[in-house]
Amino acid sequence: MNRDLLRRVAFAVAAPVLALAFSLAVSSFVLSLSGDSAIDAYRLMWEFGTTLESIVVMLNRATPLYIAGIAVAIGFKMNLFNIGVEGQYRIAALIAAWAGAELALPGVINIAFVIIVAMAVGAAWAGGIALLKVTRGVHEVVSSIMLNYISYALISYLLLNYLQLDDESQRIHTRRLDADSRFPTLNSVVELFTRDIRSGFDLNGMLAVAVVVGVLFYVLVFRTRFGYDLRASGANPWAARTSGVDPKRMVIATMLLSGGVAGLIGMPEILGSVHWFSDDLVTNLGFTGIGIALLGRNHPVGIAAAALLFGFLDRSSQILDLEGIPPQIVVIMQGVIIISVVVAYEVVARVRRAYEARETARVDPEAVAPARAGAVT
Prior knowledge:
Blueprint (H helix, E strand, L loop, with lengths): L2 H31 L4 H12 L2 H25 L8 H19 L3 H30 L3 H24 L23 H4 L15 H18 L1 H11 L1 H6 L4 H16 L4 H7 L11 H11 L4 H17 L1 H5 L5 H36 L1 H12 L1
């Protein structure tokens, strides 16, 4: 491994490592204030979180987080802030669950139908953000936040008045999907390499779909002309326009892709663990996906690491409550990670720019002389 590659790797991992270290320091300080041992808390979390069943739960939790991170990262790559992932996946899950239960196609065909409907609804909802931006100049942050609130209200209205199953239960939900319209678990695959997983713990088959999404994201963004245009438009829209890239077309295409992927976030529940849409579907996955994308530096491998970290923290925190240690420490840790990673990226970026300037001056002093003269002037 040459020196340049080592330097690039060091700069790439510096920010997330610093953010994680800072969050551990803050969490340790909070634990000490509460009279608990940070070392004991972390040891308990590690021992509990690394059991086979805990790993299954961690992967199940990381799957929708990873998809959410990819959905956000698609927008970030073009310097678009799709804050509306939360509303996109929730309304997509509602329509897809209702349509799949009502149509009830045979087995695999119905699974594919539910996924396609979810992606189409998510893309359509995100498309509204793109249209407002390219036609009226409305910033995507403003429109996506407003559309989140609209989606919440629309979901409640549709579920209460038209789409709910009228039964005697206290939960408000759509009709249950047929048994053959549920994604198979991956337990048998895992058990080929390890012991049998205990009853009640099923590895959600949507994990395989999430992996495919990550691979397609990498190929599309980093290995195609469209991906080059997308990244170029985000880095320098004026230069991209000069080279023949239509910025409005790229905005619409990027938001449609981001919304389509966002539509998949609710599928691990709809096709896996719950089989219907209810008013207590897991929330805040879209907002957490923003932190996941930032921590993973908008790269599919980094996003996977960040999603697994958050999944591990969610699972391992459950043992703390049983030992009398406040499990809220994990929420603090996650919040500090998200905040500190933004600061760490800026610090690392400034250090990197300073380092590159010194290297340029060392190799070719005349290259920086005009800049210095201009600064003095």
